[in-house]
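Tutorial, part two.
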Amino acid sequence: MTVPKIIKTFKTSDINSENAELPEKQEFHSKNKSANKIGTDYNFKRQTIWKLVLFYGTLHVLGWYGLYRACVYCHTVTVLYSIIVGVASQIGINMGAHRLYAHRSFKAKLPLRIALVILDTIAGMVIEFF
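Running the prediction step on this input gives:
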């Protein structure tokens, strides 16, 4: 696979330092015609989704409150157990749902696949691969 070559290159000296703007579109030379149409709109502005900002902000505040409660009121065994379950479920998400089922980056026998589905379920993910 060949990497497309940039026809026009931009240097920092090409951009006016007083009015520093990025070029609107860079042209690529490729055999694939659709690759030549791809450009970057530097004027694109993302919209803020305030429902998500409120949701994730609240989630982080509650997370800090939960960490405070875990440090002050919970037994050490409970904290260790929750850390072990959290790490195991993250392994299930990253190794199972992402690498095995989404990308098929490795092969796994049935016992490992079942274990990864159980760890995904502990993490709150629902998988229908069987």
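The mean pLDDT is 77. In part three we will examine how such features are distributed along the chain.
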